Fold each of these.
Amino acid sequence: MAECGICLDVLRSPVSIPCGHVHCERCLRGHISSGADALKSACPTCRKPFHIATPDFVFVPPKYHDFILPPVRKVYMDIPSIAAMTREIDALTQRFEGSAKENDHLRQRCAHYKERLEAVESEKLAIIDQRAEVRQGILELHKKYDSLKRKYREAQSRDDARNTTPSRNLSRMNSQNFDTSHEILPKVEEHPVSLQELNSNPPRPKRTLPRSRLSNSMRRKDEPAPQIVKRQRTHRYSDVGSSSQLLEVMFASDEDDSNEVDE
């Protein structure tokens, strides 16, 4: 709805002045009455002057009567229905309430996401610190590994040096012993017994060597196998007697073989 430029309220009995601005009739009268000039006044909105007094039609020709208008004219405005405005206000109020609820929900979600983001940031910082500690541990392990590797190589080189020095000393001692043995041993020419004297002595008779087990076994293979005579059992439990006889026969064949070897 339109508002008055003087009272800043809804227009009541609106009137218009020549400049086109609309004010309340009561407000405009008060404004004109407060002025010092009784014939002219200024618009309270744009400060444009306008005449207050109207000429008398008796002294004005009739052809100009249509162009003479009062400076303050009544204005009739169509005010819309209050029910439509009320419905519009209710709809806007509902929209505002819905927007307020949605805003509250969004604020809650933002707060929840903010908490999660802070937790993730703290976890990220913890992971970064842990990664730095792990990297530092890896560097320390590499240093320990390098130091141990260096110590191992030094120990290995010392062991190699120790192993090589005895072999060198041993070879040196062997060479010295060989030289001294050559110096100590007499030459063949200086030996008192000559080779001719050794060759002139008659050879000693060779001693017969005893026969080996292999020759005995070969000779036994050539000889016929001993004959074993089985006797019939006289009693039911006479296994001992038959086995003893079998052993006697076997021992007899072994004694014959040993006698032949001695001969």
Amino acid sequence: MSKRKIQDLETPALLLDLPTMESNLRKMAKFISQGKAALRPHFKNHQNVWLSKKQLEAGAIGISSAPRAHVWRSRGQRRRRMEHREIREKLPRAA
């Protein structure tokens, strides 16, 4: 894989420090496994299906989302909670 310069990336782009992200996921998993909290990260923060799956694998009980739910649902995500009232014509896509 060739290295690209940040300024050459199309935007918006999600840039991650993978070791830090994985460390944070492990810390989150440890905390919630102790029964101190349940976690439902908000999809709007990163808008990335791959990262949502990582959060679920680490123990999140679901992913919170707004109208973009129909996007990640079409890619295999099933657990969701709508935070905003959906527009009537969009409901079939999110169901």
Amino acid sequence: MNPSDAIEAIEKPLSSLPYSLSRHILEHLRKLTSHETRDWHYGEKRGR
């Protein structure tokens, strides 16, 4: 599953939250998956 598929999969459950809160959570998830994907691409995947 690629990161964008994972984010799409949780958008529906998050829709039960207030809009501003669900957007805030999704923005953070997108940032995390973006950094993780970039690090993985460049061979810099680190355990956290």
Amino acid sequence: MSPRSRSTYRIALQKFPRHLADSQGIDPEPPIDALREDHALAFLRDLVPEDIRTPEQVSRMRTAQTTFAAVRKFYAYLVSFDLHPTLSTEKLRVRASALLPRFTPPPPDVRTEELERIVEHVRRLPPQTNPTRELRRLKIRALILFLFRTGVRVSELCALRKQDIDLETGTARIYRAKGGKSRTVHFDSETAEALLAYWQARGDSGRGSGTYPAFSGRDRPGQPGRPIAPRTVQALVSRLCEEAGVEFPVTPHSFRHGLATELVRRRVRESTVQAILGHASPVTTRIYVHLTAQDAAEEYHAVFGAYRRPGKQRRAGDE
């Protein structure tokens, strides 16, 4: 389990005893054998929003699912180590499923044309005479192209070292991925050229340079320093949006959604998209990658012919 997941579960398990005391009138530190399935189910009822329509309600639903998962795993731990063998985790799962509404998170609202505008803006950034500013320009170009072509999470990008990236094959090995899993991502020749230009301008040389961060937090030739921070990447993307005249909100994660959408539009198999994005379950992939309504309409009419409003005369060439 990743440090972030551990932190999330710890917070959830701190909420549970407080709920026992505040809402159920139970000692916040009851004996283990006093816990019942109903205690966890009452906790879940308070977490689940009444409706799931607004973005805030969707966010609450996701939080409820994560929080309850921590409690459910805690119950499973008690059973597996015979600390409370009379608890029924199966009964808890079935009853919890009945409480949780059928919920599929809405697909991300992705506008690939906006992402392409940002990329094109980065491509056109003029060379700088100042070495520090030129290094920064090259870093921005390499970083944005890498996000655009690989769809890596921002945390994965920030954890990359030079030795994780192979310019010979156009691949990068993600070792510090979500859930502790590793995977290989691919990029194109333009991205490879941008990476090479950035590293050369940074002054990387020698055997030890492989351990340097792929993207540095500082922009000083000959001083790779520490890896770039996620917040720095987020601020950079936000600034580039303004410079490119993109009003639609774009984050580093938007590039991940954009790649997934583009792969689906190009008929890449779902299992391949899942592997590229590093999803543990295909269910997650189906949420992330989706055909837009326009895509669906175009494909439908490609099979059955263009739609004509009733009463409209057929023109020559419509066949």
